Amino acid sequence: MKEEKKVSRKALAVWRIRIGLLAFFPAFITFFFWAPWSVVWQVFTALWVLGVAVMFWIYYPIKYNKLAYLLTGQAFVLHCGVIYTRVKAIYRENIQFATIASGPVQRLLGVCTLYLVSAGGGIHVSCLEQEEAVRLQNLLCPEVAPDAREEGPL
Amino acid sequence: MSRRQGFRHPHPISIVTHISRFLFLLLIPLVRGLLLSLQGGFGQWLAGSWVDILMMTLISCIGVLEWLMSGYRWGEGRLEFYTGIFFRRSICIPLCRTSCVSIIHHYYLRPFGVVRLQADTPGGSWNRADFSILLKKEEANRLFDALERQEEDFLSREYRPRGLYVAVLSALLSNSFAGILFASTAISQAGKLLGKEFADRIYGTLEQITRLLAFGIPPAAAAIGYLLLGGWLLAFLVNGARHKNFAAVRKKESLVIHSGILTHRDYFLPFGQINYLDIRQSVTTRALRLYSVFLQTAGYGKNKDDLSALIPACNKKELHKTLKLLCPEFQVTERALKPNFGALLKFINDALWPSLLLPVVAWLVSLWLPDWSDFIWYTGWMATVPAIWFLLVRLFDFATSGLSRNGDMFTLRYSHFYYLHTIVLPKNRMAGFCLRQSILQRQDGRCDILVYSRSEGRKRHHLRNLLKKDAAALFGIPQAYREKPKKRRT
After folding, report:
1. Which domain does B236 fall in, by range?
2. How far is the CA of B358 from the CAs of A43, B188, B219, B385, B438, in angstroms?
3. Which residue has the higher pLDDT, B436 or B456?
4. Which of B196, B218, B243 marks a domain boundary?
């Protein structure tokens, strides 16, 4: 893989659903302590609505645009970061094992997260298509038994 | 309770260590005796002493039983150990996986001919040895000899530092010059401010001694000074005793290190398990052009009273010579990438603001509270000294930090708190790295580099403001560098 690859487009949906679910908590507080005439209530409500809106329409699209990965001959490279631009890399020889995990929202949309673990560090790529994650796992863990490769972890 | 095939019990003195773990059970008879004695019922306590005796017997039995239920053996390339009465545990450590095997001859165990044998691997607990056992000295030595004997065909090379260098390392580990400067300034200032008040409270012999040794300083300041100095000296002596008789022997595939006067320590470090070398300097040792080299490998320097040095202290010429002698694989290379002059502010930023603002704040507060001005100036100055010291470290860091690569060996130069580090890290010990670029750095294509090295915990090395394109090329991932898109003029 010489070209950079993007993660699944469903990543945006996953992140937005997550923030939507998290927004239930401040929304509950807002409705429970309903007092639109209070300045504290107004500031609190404005802050969380603004925060969610920024994440929804600005932060996550930028995050998605910047998130890309690349597999070179000697390293796995991940481009990420919104405020800070980050290039994270791990040499292939130093990868101890690779794990694939998925939460309920990710499972719903058929994506998963790939964790590459080394002794004392590691990186993860969220929202990869399942087939791609399994392909990367097999590529980066050459010791995986052939049967296990076909079966896949999910 | 039968002993497993080929296993031997640890030394019976282990019973004492087992018992010490159950000492909390003695709280019951202690509280009971205390309550009864308060009620004046010594007779009652005596009549009921069978409970205490029973408790003592129970604790002793548990200790003995645990000793009987534990055993160890070594052979066939592995160390094995089992223990536990109710919850049984069995450990098997292949010797090829050990990163450090050590024998600690504690001074209090020496009369019994007992030593502590410890073995550690890159896995397991980050603050405890994976295998630790008390056994006879001869038995431990036999294992150590067997480990060393594997490499008999190799002409070993030995390094013994001069006494002065051991003293330098002890001083470096006991305290930094910043601490001494801070303490001495604090003492003189405290003497001026609080000396009289404190002096009234000092009495008896201590007062006389302090007055005799005060040499014109207020007795309170002198007392605090001597206390701090005494504490530092004690730490210095402990470190000196720990590093005295230091010797490092390079075998074919391992390093053997011996050290200590009161408590002797012997370490066997397989060379392949060494994560990196850390050449460390404080501002003081930098001014004296001295270097101390530390080893990072799982198990070496894990406990607070362990060693972690490879070369206690030496000058630059000796450093290269000794590194070539002990670990020629780890060679320091000159900087290939270094920060640009424009990065100066980034380096000193953290230290500059406190250095400037603390005296200003002290001045403003002293204007606001004139009655407290002496105390405020004293506190402000005390807070400024470490900040200025930190500024010095950062200036040295700016002048020396950088990155280079020689084959599969990376040399990272950076500072962390009050120390300047030169890390020699093999590629296969690099757990990962990150080129981190802020919005400001994006303008001139610079980035900070975070390198994570292999260790039981998470160990990060932070290099500041290096050229991103060159760094990506140096790490062997030039594809990872994205050219900044040029703006089109319409």
Report:
1. 166-243
2. 34, 20, 29, 10, 28
3. B436
4. B243
